[in-house]
Amino acid sequence: MVKYKGKTALVTGASGGIGKAYAEELASKGSDIILVARSDEKLNALADELSFKYKVDTYVIPLDLSEANSVHELGERIEKFGLNVDILINNAGFGTHGRFETISIDREQEMIRLNISTLVGLTHQFLPHMQQQRDGIIVNLASVASFQPLAYMATYAATKAFVLSFSEALYAENRRLGVRILALCPGTTKTSFFDVMGTTDMPGGIRGTPESVVKTGFKGIAKNKSYIVDGANNYWVAQVSRFITRKGMALITERVTRPSK
Length: 261
Description:
Blueprint: E1 8-12, H1 17-28, E2 32-37, H2 40-54, E3 58-62, H3 70-80, E4 87-90, H4 105-133, E5 136-141, H5 154-174, E6 179-185, H6 193-197, H7 210-222, E7 227-229, H8 232-239, H9 246-257
Parallel strand pairs: 1-2, 1-4, 2-3, 4-5, 5-6, 6-7
């Protein structure tokens, strides 16, 4: 059985959506929570709510994790609290949508830093303590987009393919060391993700909820999976690439995700 009570969990992108839902569920299970996102006001409101409702300790670190030195700064601030991270939820990330050449290269590079570099950096920072304790959990937010090239979201899908591959490899490395590592793969989910991306025009609509994604994540950890897909329909979408050539998948996604304008 996986134990959460008395553990310290770090949740990135915790001010809303999946991150907020993860923080609440972990707090309900008795974990102390370190909340990280850019919004100081939202984090403090959530911290007060969780402390009052679940009688756990909460810590707020407002920080832009897309900045180059943010991982080091976060590590230092957690050390000043005198804490060790037992559970890491690498949730922070965003996407872009449109023809690649029309998207600001600065925005694409920012996404690569946040979706890949920060995730790798935080995993590298906190994994050794978990290995020493022979107990720990790392959940990396991947996506159904991890399983195939995705036209008009080319860089985003590539970052999530990295997250899936990275997580599965670390799962194999750590399977006998007491550390559970999971790539959690949601489909379209009702969060601010699509507002940030600048579109809500997604194939099949936006159906998932943060709560369903988090429930799936806990199920994946309980079963000690290397990855898990949220939702039956999304699972079958993820499996299609096993039966179609990569070129074929790219051409299919181009038709499906082509911008309407």
